[in-house]
From TrEMBL:
The chain crosses the membrane at residues 51-70, 77-95, 115-133, 145-163, 169-191. It comes from Planococcus antarcticus DSM 14505. InterPro entries: PAP2/HPO, PAP2/HPO_sf. This is Phosphatidylglycerophosphatase B. SUPFAM superfamilies: Acid phosphatase/Vanadium-dependent haloperoxidase. PANTHER family: AT30094P, SPHINGOSINE-1-PHOSPHATE PHOSPHOHYDROLASE.
Amino acid sequence: MERLFYPLAIAALLGFFAILVNYPEKAIVQIDQQAAELLGGRRLLDSMSFIGDPWMIAAVSLTLLVYLWLFRKNYRGMLFVLLAVGVGNVLNQSMKEWFERPRPELQYGLEPFSFPANHAMVGLLYLFTLAYFLSEGTVSRKTKILIWLTAVGLSMTVALSRVAGGEHYFSDIVAGLFVGYAWFVAVAVWYELRERLFRKRDENRKKEEFPD
């Protein structure tokens, strides 16, 4: 991953805690109200929420797992998906229960707590994880940029759709994006360190088997 991603992850994590501590404050309440007025009722944006629905996340993640297993034989990559998306979802649900922030207006069929937004956090996690492995398999810089721009655009769209539908406050979705990105980078750092370690082991083993 690009080195710029690391300090951004730290900044995102700090941003999450800043929102966590201050979301009852008047300034953030006003931002939430303004965002609700600006985006509320926009049906096209609201309809994009399906991209972050659990069934979509599960279907795409399962497809990615099968691809990494059958076509790439990348078992550590499979663990990457499980850590990023699976554990990320567990973290999200745990944080909701821990912080207990009620939704703007409790809608039937939804869990009562909203912070951080699941669609924003886990939506980003599965889209960024998909982008990570798709871009890893291409050598074209333009294609990589296009893949990542698409992932970022879809993540933002899914997050904002939850404000348009009235399910979340704007601060919920920003916090979800922040903590989701921080968790994604943490998993990616672990993955890349492990990849380098195993690559060095393979190189050393080859040198021992085929000395100059």
